[in-house]
Amino acid sequence: MASLDKGKAKAMRAVQAMFDRYHLLSAQRPPHHKDFDHQVMANLKLIDVTPEGTATFEMVMSEGYSNLNEVMHGGAAALIFDMATTSALCPLARPGYWEFMGGVTRTLNISYIKPVPIGTTVRIVSKAVAVGKQMAMIRGKMVSVDGKTTYCTVEHHKVNTPVRSEHRKARLPWDDEFEKEHGVKRERGESKL
User: Fold this and answer.
1) How far apart are CA 116 and CA 70, in angstroms?
2) Three-state DSSP string of 72-120
3) Under a CB-based contact definition with an 8 Å cutoff, are residues 56 and 48 in contact?
4) Residues contacting residue 182 through CB under 8 Å, at least 6 positions apart
5) Is position 118 within any domain?
6) pTM for the complete prediction?
7) Residues 70 and 76 sit within 8 Å (Cβ to Cβ)
8) CA 174/CA 26 separation, integer angstroms
9) For the chain, what is the domain count?
10) What angle, 0 to 180 degrees and rounded to 10, lies between the N-to-C axes of helices 173-182 and 2-27?
11) For residue 145, is it within any domain?
């Protein structure tokens, strides 16, 4: 049981590190520059993670995600799923594979089932289904907190890409743990933030 708890705690640190690094890098942008995913990354609340590549979040569907019908915009669902499903790869990352932000999206296929009223708290559940060195597939669903209503589902295919060198410079305590586990040596010029 203790090793399960350690594995779960490590998986939580891996996902949290993605969010922490995102916020460090975002804070370095000019004050007027807010990336498209900024609001989602600020509003997703991490609930649960497993070492096998699952991640569960909750978030309130605020007005910033609405359309004129006072429900979640379909494009907002795509952005939310993009970030939430990518995070399921964090516990599975290895040096050169699925590190920070987990590559780039190849396809993101969403099935909209029921509208999400503005003000509703939703749960987003993501599971890495197939993960190779260059391609990954993650499935997800957006449901009510009680799990009784499914609002939409997603199948997200990703392609692995190298981490940008400037992103590697935004160091976190997680990097030391990750590098030690995988025998990675820190390159010159990289400093811990």
Assistant:
1) 9
2) ECHHHHHHHHHHHHHHCCHHHCECCECCCCCCEEEEEEEEECCCCECCC
3) yes
4) 94, 95
5) yes
6) 0.91
7) no
8) 18
9) 1
10) 130
11) yes
Contact indicator for 115, 37 with CB cutoff of 8 Å: no
Nearest to 46 by CA among 7, 76, 5, 17: 17
CATH of the domain at 34: 3.10.129.10
Does some domain include residue 191? no
Q: Which residues contact 25 (CB under 8 A, 6 or more apart)?
A: 167, 170
| Domain hosting residue 21, numbered range | 2-182
Q: Which residues, at least 6 apart from 58, have a Cβ–Cβ distance to it below 8 Å?
A: 44, 45, 47, 121, 122, 123, 124, 145
Assess if residue 44 is contained within a domain. Answer: yes
pLDDT, tens digit only, all 193 positions of the chain: 677 699 999 999 999 999 999 999 999 989 888 888 999 999 999 999 999 999 999 999 999 999 999 999 999 999 999 999 999 999 999 999 999 988 999 999 999 999 999 999 999 999 999 999 999 999 999 999 999 999 999 999 999 999 999 999 999 999 999 999 999 986 644 444 4
